[in-house]
Design goal:
By secondary structure, the chain is α/β, with parallel strands linked by helices. It contains 8 helices and 7 strands; from the N terminus they run βαβαβαβαβαβαααβ. It has a single domain, classed as 3-Layer(aba) Sandwich (Rossmann fold), CATH 3.40.50. It has a 7-stranded parallel sheet with strand order 3-2-1-4-5-6-7, with helices on both faces. The chain is globular and about 45 Å long.
Length: about 250
Amino acid sequence: MNLSDFSLENKVALITGGTSGVGKMMALALARAGAFVWIASSRSNAEEALQEIKDQGCKGAFIQADVTSTADLKNLVTQISKESGKIDILVNAAGINLRTSAEELTLEEWQKTIDINLTAPFYLSKLVAESMTKNNWGRIINIASLQSLRAFDNSIPYGASKGGIMQLTRALAQAYSKNGVLVNAIAPGFFRTNLTESLFQDPEKLKNLAAKTMMDRNGEEKDIFGISVFLCSDANSYVTGQTIFLDGGFSAA
């Protein structure tokens, strides 16, 4: 192995939810490593995320899609495959956490969360895996959570969906790894994202969360970069079906 194994030159990456949060951090990481990054989001405005990629001399494009629409996902894969010729890397980062109490939680809220956080990663992975297996090379990264292992208040559908992501990752790896498609998940600890912004506005709560890690700090953008590039590159040739907890030891303490 040498440093070139970490290069993503000539690779094409598709990242859902890539306009903000962990998805945006991973988009930057893969772009810096040389990949052409397609950012997919239901938001029509992705200039900020794309500008950050381009400001660093990297390449990318935006494509609008609703991940709960099977038609949108099919069109997404068709369009990117037509324009870029292939999809080598898929990052399923789109997600929501409605933070509703058990008493107030509705079936509609449950279904919306499951559709975005679990069903979309399954279906999009299935769509891209077809061409990946033909090329005998592919990388699929799902975004799990601390709630893949434990419960937090007011997060029943989110926790259920992220527990499902952990098992979905294993199941997809079982289905596709023999054909060179490695499937893993990253479970971030507390990073500053849209989903955790309220925590970062409470210094005392933030301090208490940091104290629960083994490193006495919460996650920073730079912490996402290394693991993202490793899992998506040739440097990783034997890790599949795994959920890696990127949490400073929070889940192990």
